[in-house]
């Protein structure tokens, strides 16, 4: 998969693209990640990429020309690339969306900034707006990192055990069941006996029950959504 990230702060991505599982996916060539500095496409002699909003109001708006030229440049080799804008007004980013995006061959992620981007860019080149939560950040870089991480781990040969992708939160609309490891007793607290029994049928039943309990307690909205 090819991922182009259009940003005003490419240096913010060096850590995530060179570390841990994502870094290994880059090394193996499973993803080809490119950082595109939007400012490089500005025709303004001072390389400005923002201006005051028409109609007045606080803050600045990203101007259309640098964004349009940046997207056009990275779409030359693949006009079918899917263009995503990180935005507080976008649709919520959920596991199902991550799975759908993992099936794309080429993603272009625009990191929004300031009060937003000129609407004409959204109307002309953006395929979808995505939000990672109901809060506002200083820019779209962190949401872009979340999208890259969530999508990359779903690609073949990225996670060591494919089973890890099946037995985790949000599969089947549930949060994950509690996990335990050695030692069997820690500070007076013991691992549930069923997990030590070797009876896989009972273990699976216990895990399903605990997943339901955890979801009901922590995220009852997931149960409502999947009725």
Question: Could you characterize what this model shows?
Answer:
It is a single chain. The protein has two domains: 2-152, 3-Layer(aba) Sandwich (Alpha/beta knot); 167-225, Orthogonal Bundle (Trp Operon Repressor, Chain A), CATH 1.10.1270. The radius of gyration is 22 Å and the shape is elongated. Strand 5 (82-92), helix 4 and strand 6 form a beta-alpha-beta unit. The chain has 227 residues and is an alpha/beta fold. 23% of the residues are buried. The protein is built from nine helices and nine strands. It has helices at residues 14-17, 20-28, 64-74, 95-101, 119-124, 141-152, 163-166, 200-218, 220-225; strands spanning 2-7, 32-37, 50-51, 61-62, 82-92, 106-111, 128-131, 185-186, 189-190. The strands form three sheets. The protein has a five-stranded parallel β-sheet, with helices on both faces. Strands 3-4 form a two-stranded antiparallel sheet. The protein has a two-stranded antiparallel ribbon with strand order 8-9.
So, CATH architecture of the largest domain?
A: 3-Layer(aba) Sandwich
Structural class: alpha/beta
CATH topology of the largest domain: Alpha/beta knot
* Sheet with the most strands: spatial strand order: 2-1-6-5-7
Number of domains: 2
**What gross morphology would you assign?**
elongated
**The CATH class of the largest domain:** Alpha Beta
Largest sheet: 5 strands, parallel
- Please bin the fraction of helical residues: 25-40%
H-E order:
EHHEEEHEHEHEHHEEHH
Q: pLDDT under 50 segments (min length 5)? A: none
The number of E-state strands comes to 9
- Strand proportion, as a percent range, falls in 15-25%
C-alpha-based Rg, rounded: 22 Å
